[in-house]
Each structure stands twice: as structure tokens, then as C-alpha cells.
């Protein structure tokens, strides 16, 4: 009589506990705030204190500063993607969706994180590249919808938009970062009004793409 062979049970990888996920989110939020306020060299111990967790919890989630910086940048890019998706879903006006997205992207303080992307860690890390691609796709979708509606001038590209958002949401030299916040949305709206079609002038050069920006680094 042949004995049936028992099928080995498949063990599932344990899911992170809810409190562990909350701690990770608190660390990323605290790090983003402090990177914007103080720059990428803020001590990790200070980030732990703001997040309300122990130092060991920070290092258990992020073995080094590069890992934490990368997670912060990816989270900002993903929040920007979510803002674009909401703008497209909730605004029936194509240019209104673009306006909503631009103001939301500025609130994420992408400009403050740009130097960190350029100097702190591997720009070609797969997580960062995937997050960047998602962000570029949603920006193109928002802009293309406005162009197809005849509301956005056709001679601007994704790179043009990102340069303007980064520059206009960055405080002038010598100005405290947070004190300039109240002017950001005013100046962004001036810029957005200049994007409306029909255009009142001819722009020099050609529309700037994200590839143009990468080659300029």
C-alpha cells in the first residue's frame, strides 16, 4: 500500500504589525519635515525625537541615512502622483486640474529635496527610478489633458513645469525656508496664468523635457 506524501505547508511571510507601519510612517514624516527645515544633514537622533520613537526603531527601519533620504524622496514623489490623480478625478476643468496639481506639488516642497536627490544617494536606485517614472507619467497626463482642451499653451513641456514649481517654491537666498511659504502660491498662480492658451508671446527655445533636465545635471 502506497503511503500518501503530505504536502508541506506553505509559510507566508509575516505581515508588518500595524504599530510598526505607523512608526515607519512617523519617521518618514518627521524626516521630510526636518530635511525641508534644516537640510539633509539633520542628525537622525533628532528625527527620532520628532517622530516620537527610539533611535533603534529608526535604524531598524532605515539602516543608514541614504535609505531614509531615499524613502523620503520616494514618498514625496508618490504623494505628488496621488495629488495628480485626485486633480484629474475631481476637477471637470482641465486647466483647473493642472492648477490644483501644481499647488499641491509645491506643498510637497519638492524643491527642498532636489539637492538631496543630486548629492546624497544613488540616483539610479530602482525604487527612486520607479517613483520618478510614476510622477512623470501623471504630470504628462495632467498637462496633455489641458493641451487637448485648448487651455494650456502647446509650447511648454513637463520639464518647464517642474523647473518653475521647484524655483518658485524655493525661498530666496538668505530667507528662512518657512517664512517664504505664504508667498509661494501667489507666485505660482502668476506663473499658471502665463501658461494659459492662447499664448501672448513666443517662448525662446523649445519645450523642456524631463530628459533635458537629467542631461543638464
TrEMBL record:
It comes from the Bacteria. Keywords: Coiled coil, DNA-binding, Transcription, Transcription regulation. Residues 125-152 form a coiled coil. PROSITE patterns: HTH_TETR_2 (PS50977). Residues 43-62 bind DNA. Residues 21-80 form the HTH tetR-type domain. InterPro entries: Homeodomain-like_sf, HTH-type_TetR-like_transc_reg, HTH_TetR, Tet_transcr_reg_TetR-rel_C_sf, TetR_SbtR-like_C. GO terms for molecular function: DNA-binding transcription factor activity; transcription cis-regulatory region binding. Signal peptide: none annotated. This is TetR family transcriptional regulator.
